[in-house]
Hints:
The chain is an alpha+beta fold.
Amino acid sequence: xxxxxxxxxxxxxxxxxxxxxxxxxxxxxxxxxxxxxxxxxxxxxxxxxxxxxxxxxxxxxxxxxxxxxxxxxxxxxxxxxxxxxxxxxxxxxxxxxxxxxxxxxxxxxxxxxxxxxxxxxxxxxxxxxxxxxxxxxxxxxxxxxxxxxxxxxxxx
Length: 156
């Protein structure tokens, strides 16, 4: 974990969360871009043991496993956000999440899957972590991943 201190890092420590380093992009993009006070994080796919967490909700995975995958993505997103701004204490708002859930046509719990990320961000950041959100069911995600989430944050 980083050497940064403060309430957010205390909460991460209490939850037993160590933030990962920024992942190397898998294609022609950068992990984050800041413009003004907004930081845009590229989509992060769910990973399990360092590899894509493969699955399709409604076929090979249930809602609770998808929710765990979304929570794991939130941890990766926070690692990237820390790399982008240097200290998570500088975040004044998690503005928006967009969640893509690899799911069958009849799976309708994308919003519940995405709660895995939303709930963790709220727990770590408190009111600053409350955000707008979209959750979509999609036919496929790169590398067969079950969930992909992107994030927009405001920094002081």
